Hints:
alpha+beta, Aminopeptidase, 8-stranded mixed β-sheet, protein-N-terminal-alanine acetyltransferase activity, Ribosomal_N-acetyltransferase, Acyl_CoA_acyltransferase
Amino acid sequence: MSITGEIDGTGVRLRAFRPDDVEAVAAGYDDPLCHRFLPPLPSPFTLAHAERFLAEGVTSVFADGGAAYAIADPDTDELLGGIGFDKVVTGRGQAEIGYWVGSWARGRGVATAAVRALSTHALGTGLARLELLTHWENPASQRVALAAGYQREGVRRAALPNRTGGRDDLVAFARLADDPGDPIPRLLPDLPGGELSDGVVTLRPLGPDDIGFVTEVRSLPEVWQTSVPPEPPPAEVVRHRCERAEAYWLAGTRADLVIVDAGTGRPAGEIGLFYQEPVTGQAMIGYSMLPAFRGRGFATRAAQLVALWAFAETDIARLIAGTLPTNVGSQRVLEKAGFRREAYLKSRLPGPDGTRMDDVEFVLLAEDLLTEGPRLDG
């Protein structure tokens, strides 16, 4: 299948590439993000590469049943990026969509508008399924997929060769011909204003720049011995946790945050919300603090901030948290945050050296916190 002609979208027009697009194409592809997430591209991407793409590459895509379009400003005709689909499987009515947006046009909704326009057109003229594959570490592309009506389906392991001789996992999204194309609702929305704060502590999303901090926290024996599994995490696990934190948040499975001392701006600890049972509206929280910041009420404040956000902004109705029977300090944190002891679960958690550990479970209900209000008494 192939598509010809122009396609109008909201604030964009998809048109044929022209020879005078060559400089913009070269500049767009010779970009750090393109080099990172499009490893088949030559690096550096020169004007000669752009000329060859316009002379041969575009024609080749159409010859194989795909499509390749320039994304242009509908008023000025300025080139904003490129979009198309390839890897067409005719018998399945399936193809893979891909795009790029020049650095000069980012942050304006160009990618979402272009993906939505091409997807709607292609799925309305013969294709039954379009896939959008993106790296774990490319949350911007994942946001585009969700906004353009693509549902997250899973992860394809080692799906793409990278520039270092290895292979990268890709997160898979898909949109079907009978999907409405509306933005996909998110189980865990973004924080209002990008953070939560009560003036004493501030919670911000965990990110790639926090690898050193998380390594420090997770290397503490009292932290890793009560983690699952109960062992110091390998460096790769820590790196993945930080680099993929936003992807997990977008998937609606967990929200990882850094607890920051609002007075100094220093990271003091971490807290995570794990949305384990969306069907029942139950989620779990867990937290860890650096020794220098313990005993100052930071964990209690963080737990309350997370709970207030979860109950107000999501469908979560029930928050649980667990501690070891001997961890009186953590139990006190939860009690001050409004949690009530609910159960004693014997041998629930794996312990060091093949042992099993009991778990004391606490619960906080939406109506309890929203009725009683925060308890910030220490």
